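Recap from last week: sequence in, structure out.
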Amino acid sequence: MPKAPRLTTALAASAAAVLALSACGGDSSGDAESDASKSSSKASGDDAKDSKDVTLAEPKPADAKAVEAIAVTEAKGKKGPSIKLDDSPVKVSETTRDIRTEGKGEDLADDAYAEVDLAMFSGKDGKAIEGSETYTSSPIVLDLGNAQALPGLIKAIKDQKIGSSGVAVMPPKDLFGSKGMPEYGVDGKDSLVLVYDVRGQLPEKVEGKQKRLGKDMPEVKYNDGKPADITIPKGATKPKKLVTETLIEGKGKTIKKGDTVYVSYTGVTWDDGKVFDSSLKDGRGPFSFPVGGQQVIPAWDKAVEGAKVGDRLLIVAPPKEAYGSQAQGPIKANSTLVFTVDVLGAP
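Predicted structure tokens:
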């Protein structure tokens, strides 16, 4: 019997539901947008919030005192953080945080995709919530501008500097609602304690001088906040094999199989040069996938493995490296696809 996914998987799915794109690079066997939306709906419980509500209120003195009294033992090596409650159960009327370390990095943007390490504990007895801790694995990415996210997490992390760390207590209404998440031992009555460290934020695009390619290769013009212009050269022969070119060379970590990578992208068909999908449309934001996990077309798994964070890639995918003989939405059967992909991060 397969194990239940980690709680952090559910948290990331909910807090970054905007990452659920229409899966232009996805497997044609499923609908990534609808699947992720279902996951988000489940994770966010029955107390959805509008974006105007996702702000941290001035704490009540009793709430602030209760949070300040929580003792934290920091994560070390292969051991995550732990807490000790001075008085249990700990409860708050509204999400309340205590910043223990003021970061020295840049301010998080209001709509940042924040890289955060976190661990969650029961407000009833201080015990760790199984599957919630990321300190011994890798940070998750939270979309701070997503109105459909779990408001308690967003309230706890927003309006801080990179490098900040602290403790927050979140009431049920700001997390999983009155139903809780029983599969993780979280009921709908008790507050949860969050220990967090703000590690960074994803850039909107990669930076650097873009390399020019040969006359028979597509030309890419990046547009801030809009899909890239990809021009297919007239009379050029379609490649029969996968082509990957690095337009901008990054200086970040090298992507390995199994890494979860965050990218922005634009895709066009070789035959007409029309955009069929882009993460830069409709304010959707970055797309994430596990490299080598066969959750995207083969071309993406092959092209991104071995690339570096900060790379801008040009990918030309013949049909066998894309959707083959199957049509996919606006993409006709046996289409050669052209993508520009910015590798934004791999926490």
